[in-house]
Amino acid sequence: MDWISLAAQLFPHGHTIVEQDNFLTGTAQVDGATVSVIGSCGHAPIGVEIALLQAQAVLATVRNFPQRPIVILVDTQGQRLRHRDEMLGINSYMAHLGKCMALARSQGHKIVALVYDQALSGGFITSGMMADACFALPQATIRVMGLPAMARITKVPLERLTELAKSNPVFAPGPVNYLQMGGIDAIWDGDLALQLAQALRDASPQDQRSAAGLQRGGRSQAFPVAQAVLDHANLHANLRDNAP
Q: Which of 92, 96, 97, 223 is packed most tightly, with the most Cβ within 10 A?
């Protein structure tokens, strides 16, 4: 789905979204309130320019419109793999974008993301995965790393990874697998405007992804390990505070 058709379905009461060089920005009306809309289109590779523009848009909302909700529209092939971007420090730009999203959440801005086409690698991690809640359309493509690239990095044969992907969502792409792992909250179909309005009402800054992954059977160890680390840290804090 192209972003223009998507915006018409998400925001039937009007929007001011504009596109420039695959960067989306504007406002829209949702459930009787104004929201900021930030995103990308055209399977955009997220280079230093778009990362900085997205960060600036988030900061402008925080500065000028306290607690205004933010909607992130995700369509990206991941971070741009060019020597120029690497030399300019694309990792720092991506980290800056993630920090701006975290700042907005800490200041009371509800952030909801929707993957409407592609969501790959670092371009997804610092946008959709930094939101309070992330959703996807049924036809969306979501993956952090393709199986061929994973085989090269891990040295596990591609055939073995392909076999594992049939039964383990950690190795498999697609919204259904990410839903099972807790990476997204739901797959939207039908009335997108209604579902967006409900998502903004329900959005919470508390991260429930590992707990959801355990409950849905997609990630069996993330939540128990995180809880064990937290319990260990609390134990040491209590011992320190009560030391003579």
A: 97
